[in-house]
Input
Amino acid sequence: MALTVLVPLDGSPLSQRALPFAAHLVAGGRGRLVLAHVQSSFYSDIPSYYDPVQDVDALRQEGVEATSFVYRAPLAEVAEVLDLAIREAAVDLVVMSTHGRGGLRRTILGSVADQLMRRAEVPVLLVPSASEVSWQAQRPTQILVPLDGSPLAEQALAPAAGMARLLDAEILLVRVLSPVLHPRYRGDKLTLSCADFVEVEDAWRYLSGVADELRAGGCRTTFWVLVGSPAVAIESAARAEGADLIVMTTHGRGGLGRFLMGSTADGLLQRSHVPILLVRSGAANDSTTATATAMGVEIVTEAHGFAVTSTAKE
Output
């Protein structure tokens, strides 16, 4: 099944940063790109002569299948128009750029990414302006998946496995424990530790079980248990391990401000040097399944509520 990727563009250099990542996902006949430009009053500082056709031509010269659409709509309806484009083109994934500074609310389309996450039934891959990685690099690729032990967080696993398949990547599972101080008494001395050993052991056992299921589906997988502030710890792990992508789940309700582990994704985007793939929980297991299938992965229900099996031909 071919992957269809939508890339919203506004003619700015920032929006163009999403194109290499999107193109890499569909290269080699794995799918096609749909470039969408919405003309509205927001684009007062963007040249009116911008036409995505020039980007389509450049992509086709590189052997990437691409098409483009131009829409006209009031600013308040930009996200609605993009959501309509997603449905009409049977899109599996959205790839778009973001400033990162000030959180997820400042993007190439103002607050459109925030609004789109409330509507879209497909995962959205955000490319921060500070992104330092390139998936074209000739080196092993790694995908980091933060988990907190909940079924909500685990909904990111199937799309992560699909991405691992496309990028020939290893998956790094991370669970961050809260840095709550625990008192320890030894004789007449009081000491403090940041995490209880039993808590760390439970987290380690949980991640080990998830990793075993991913490995059974053909995904190379390792895992870490960390203690600290979630956003800081995840970004530090991504840098230390050379991650190329972070995949995580969001509630979606109320926009991008409400994520698993509180505001972790919002804080992470301000720090991240790699793209972040967000999977909205209420969106639908159907859309997540369709996306994973397009990426060559079959979802099977097992102990943790998921398992992955490759369906793509070698």
